[in-house]
Target: LysR family transcriptional regulator
Amino acid sequence: MNAFLLSAQHLSFSKAAKELFVTQSAISRHIAGLEAYLGHPLFMRRSHGLALTQIGENYLKLVRPAMESLERATTQVISTAQNAHLLSLSVAPTFAANWLFPRLESFRASNPHIAIHFVRYSTTDSAETGDGFDASIQYGYGDWPIADAQYLIGRETSIVCSPSYLAQHPIQHFSDLKQCSLLQHIELPTSWDDWFNAYAGPYEGARIGPGFNLFTLIIQAAIAGLGVALVPSCLLQESLSSRKLVEPLGQRFESPLGYYLCAPNWRSDMESYQRFGEWLQQECRRPPTAS
Model:
């Protein structure tokens, strides 16, 4: 098939032969065999060169995308094999800073032959990764059918505020939150709505409050006394142990959302991905240490 594609690209058997490191007669025989198989001529042989027939042009349009797809798949497989000891990872920023980085040295100690490259974080509903990274740690429902998605941690959530905010806004019952400023995650606009529906009954003001696009900013806003935050508990260990934040209701809540390690199915058998996933699962099962 490469003989046909290159001959069509250059409109020359000799140039196609040169690129494929074969003789011109070999290319001619290959094209003649293909034309015989298809039952139609693909090229018009002219004194000044080649030209595609109408059937040849149509055939080129049909086979070129398939060949490009095959080339991409081949390149991806080769890249995966060559980078067995490298994992390019896109991670939700707050999870990276508050949970992953403080633990990462233990992975490096037990897997010194695997290097992790952290790249810019990008969210995606399908958990598909681009050419720039192999896998990601995403916050969501884990319902990505084209990807291997391993639940890690994060379904347990906390309602938190600063001690000074609590002093000014006593919170003893779920209904007391209706009198508070609710810090909103703009990429998770139904978070508070879902919480009220599950635990305290519908509340029209559940989506009203200052908005932020990262849990890092929401946590810092809560520490600054700007309101009450609803945050995965795994992100709050340092803030709670230092008493920068408190949990006024004294309990935690279950969320359908969590952090998942995700990779497209065709990359999920990479050694680096599997080793990293095994280590993450062990760390997520480990009880938090006291600070």
